[in-house]
């Protein structure tokens, strides 16, 4: 069945995936830029940065803080040489990074970026066309496909 064309000449069914892909790119950009300014302003080490030990064996790739105390770090599970592991690592802190706890991520795939708008609402970018979404500070995460905006089955 032919699709109706819009004033832009593109089929109406193709506009939504483009918008969602654009949203995913904006979220990834935020995830990669927000942590730098926030972390530097709450740290007290040399040049505003100091090393912290998370206690996790995950290879962390991104960190985001919604305020001076609430933060999340994401990545993939550390896999020793010849070993097996799973991805989707999420760590959370409620004391400015002094202590970190693991959260269940709802995916076995590595996470590349994370951003939070406040202490409750956040997104993490999965290595394939999906994002993880939380509305309760990371207590639970649900997977959302970037292509459709709908939950995966």
Tell me what you see in this structure.
This protein is α+β, with helices and mostly antiparallel strands and 153 residues long. The chain has one domain (13-45, 54-145). Helices cover 20% and strands 28% of the residues. It has one helix and eight strands; from the N terminus they run αββββββββ. The strands form two sheets. A four-stranded antiparallel sheet has the order 1-2-3-4. A hairpin with a 5-residue loop joins strand 1 and strand 2 (71-76). It starts with 11 loop residues before the first helix and ends in an 8-residue tail after the last strand. Mean pLDDT is 73; it is low at 34-43.
Describe the structure concisely.
The protein has one helix and eight strands. It has one helix at 12-42, and strands spanning 59-65, 71-76, 87-93, 101-103, 111-116, 122-126, 130-134, 142-145.
Keyword list:
28% strand; four-stranded antiparallel sheet; 153 residues
Topology readout:
Layout: H1 12-42, E1 59-65, E2 71-76, E3 87-93, E4 101-103, E5 111-116, E6 122-126, E7 130-134, E8 142-145
Antiparallel strand pairs: 1-2, 2-3, 3-4, 5-6, 6-7, 7-8
| SSE pattern, N- to C-terminal | HEEEEEEEE
| CA gyration radius, whole angstroms | 18 Å
Shape: globular
Number of helices: 1
What is the number of independent domains?
Answer: 1
């Amino acid at each position: 069945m032919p699709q109706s064309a819009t004033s832009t000449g593109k089929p109406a069914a193709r506009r939504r995936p483009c918008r969602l892909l654009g949203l995913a790119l904006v979220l990834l950009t935020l995830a990669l830029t927000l942590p730098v300014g926030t972390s530097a302003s709450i740290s007290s080490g040399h040049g505003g940065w100091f090393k912290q030990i998370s206690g996790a064996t995950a290879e962390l790739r991104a960190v985001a803080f919604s305020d001076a105390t609430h933060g999340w770090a994401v990545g993939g599970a550390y896999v020793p040489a010849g070993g097996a592991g799973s991805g989707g690592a999420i760590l959370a802190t409620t004391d400015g990074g002094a202590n970190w706890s693991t959260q269940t991520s709802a995916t076995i795939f590595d996470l590349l970026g994370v951003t939070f708008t406040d202490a409750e609402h956040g997104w993490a970018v999965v290595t394939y066309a999906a994002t993880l979404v939380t509305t309760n500070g990371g207590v639970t995460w649900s997977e959302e496909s970037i292509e459709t905006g709908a939950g995966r089955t």
